[in-house]
Specification:
Length: 238
């Protein structure tokens, strides 16, 4: 074989190798966009609701952060300094509710978690934040940020102005639908302001759905959530 022909076949082989490498890289990047980084063996940390705002303050996507700021959960810690809370605390021998573990466990996200489970910048004064119901957000935050960064490198197809579709999250990345058993850990008779708890009713009060995801009227009203078996309101068909 002449040196010219050897050179030609070397170029063809190199081009083929490059194509394989590029194809593998594209496939890996597409997988990263869909799935985010691999799950870490270490427990995810609590990062605080302020971090959630990065993605969940878009009104076209439901503005979940803004909705949370409007309702009572976001004021849970602040409320412990109110005259009503101070009076309730005094009746129970609690001088400063904002410093008492019995109060904080239901008025501050991750109040009973060790310091190493809290990310830098986590602010307990946020009250009952997103992660009380949806679980620690570190893995979810990292996965979505990595996916967004990977997507920025994708070649556009002329439709970038269109609203992006809602992402189907991998199982276990974040708690999508809190269960009533979680809610009644705090909404129970130990609370000095306890009222009978109906999951369907409360979901309707704090709903912050993404409008890009199709839902039935019953789902939007929270009627597809399971409630307590002894809930009088659910037994009455309300």
């Amino acid at each position: 074989m002449t040196s010219a022909r050897q050179g030609f076949f070397s170029i063809v082989a190199a081009a083929g190798l490059c194509a394989v490498i590029v194809g593998t890289a594209d496939a890996s990047r597409s997988a990263a966009i869909a799935n985010g980084p691999p799950a870490s063996a270490a427990p995810a940390k609590y990062i605080g609701s302020a971090k959630c705002k990065n993605c969940h303050a878009n009104k076209a996507h439901g503005d979940q952060f803004g909705r949370w700021k409007e309702e009572k959960h976001s004021q849970a810690f602040t409320s412990l300094a109110s005259p009503a809370a101070l009076a309730a605390g005094k009746e129970r021998g609690v001088a400063e509710p904002q410093k008492d573990a019995a109060c904080l466990k239901c008025h501050v996200t991750a109040a009973s978690e060790p310091a190493e489970r809290l990310a830098k910048g986590f602010d307990p004064k946020e009250g009952v934040g997103c992660e009380t119901c949806h679980g620690p957000g570190e893995a979810h935050f990292k996965a979505r940020m990595a996916a967004a960064a990977a997507a920025e490198g994708e070649e556009g197809f002329g439709d970038e102005a269109a609203a992006p579709a809602a992402v189907k999250l991998p199982d276990g990345e974040i708690v999508l639908r809190p269960k009533v058993e979680l809610c009644v850990q705090c909404h129970n008779k130990e609370s000095p302001t306890f009222k009978p708890f109906c999951m369907k009713e409360r979901v309707k009060e704090i709903a912050h759905f993404d409008p890009r995801k199709p839902r039935t009227p019953d789902q939007l009203a929270g009627k597809d959530f399971d409630c307590l078996p002894d809930c009088e309101k659910c037994k009455g068909g309300k």
